[in-house]
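During the no-cost extension, the postdoctoral fellow (Dr. R.K.) reprocessed legacy sequence entries with the updated structure-token encoder. One reprocessed record is reproduced below for audit purposes.
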Amino acid sequence: MAEEKAALFLQEHGYTILEKNFYSRFGELDIIAFKDNILHFIEVKSGENYELAIQNITPAKLSRLIKTAQVYMKKNTLDPEYMFDALIVTPKNIEILENITI
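Re-encoded structure tokens follow.
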């Protein structure tokens, strides 16, 4: 449910959804989208509040996201500018955090 809300939110904010739930042996990318000539790998997290949702993005999770994104780009012969984002879905709000690897 949170990923569907996330996809609608992204589309309403000018993102083009390229793929959902891309799997590799390293993990899963929830949403892959494109906006302003940048490829966005988006991790969707939901919870009762912001803090509960965001704490699930750990250094190990980020490492798996990065490896899976590399697989996606190699598989699709892509070499774009890209970033990793988090989309936090709570009962009252949806918030995007861009470039979470910095």
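The CA atoms of residues 48 and 90 lie 6 Å apart. The mean pLDDT is 93. The remaining legacy entries will be reprocessed before the final report is submitted.
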